[in-house]
Amino acid sequence: MGATVIGSWIKVGAISPESYWIALLGQTVIAIAQALIMPIPPELAAVWFPSHQVSTACSIGVIGIEMGLAAGFIVPPLFFQCSSSGDDDVGKVLYQISMALSIVNTVVFILLIIFFKGRPKSPPSIGQLKFENSVPFLESAKTFMYNRSNILLVIAYGIVVGLMLSVSTLLNPLILSYYPDAQEDVGWIGLVMILGGMLGTIICGVALDVYGKFKQTILALSGLGIAAMICFTFAITRGIEFVYFMSAIFGFSTLGMQVGGLELGCELGYPIHQGIIAGILITSTQVSGIAFTYLYSYLLETHGGYYANLTMLALFVIEFLLLCSIKYNLRRRTVEMAHKERI
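-> structure tokens emitted (343 positions)
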């Protein structure tokens, strides 16, 4: 969080075109901080909450990240609507946005320092108690990646979240290639996608806690993502209202998979520390997100939206097949259930 604050204040001093390199430096610092923040939700959930609330707590943490994405789709356009198109006005708006973000980040950082505690006095679950003796990172990562199901999960998770990142990044040229006059709709479609994802995230987390059906829940979300991509590919021209609806379904499935994949990784990799597992999974999404964004952009420019979406659909199918091939050995839940039976 401290790096985010530093990066935000660096960007405050990078409003003029001549200060582009300063803005790039600030954004780089923030990006590094984001890589450290993304694995936190499953870590906090496992450290602070009992086993029957872990998935729900993780989903709430992931929703916080998604709320930031949603704000990113809608807040900047609202700021710019209040200004004219002059360079001075654009610079003024950018300064206002950067200053507001810096102040908010600073306040949150101070509150974290004052009120937040690293962990409770005693572990909330028998599963968390097993993490007392820590294992070095490289050894834990090597152990996790030696398992076939874990490798399949890392690849599948990287594909589904990477696809979501690429589609959301290139949503503007994708929508405008079919609806040239829908400039204002693009931001709202992105917001609807994230809101649908927030709903999918919390439903997935609660369902995993209440029913514990990891395989059924994750495959259902993956299948729903395939259905949404099929509609994007073959029926995107049916009207802008249809695009809104399918964006919500797409966000519901792909962002719902975020918490599902993180929690499944912690189950399959137990007793490896959940922060290490989350870091490996998040790394796969960043790598695939960059690769898929370049691929999607290239296909949009050279072959159009139909073939670009068709390629993304093929990747979705591969991800579904990988998820079907995983052995859903829920080790953490097995330990918890065995402890309850002894009691």
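The domain at 134-342 is CATH 1.20.1250.20 (Growth Hormone; Chain: A;).
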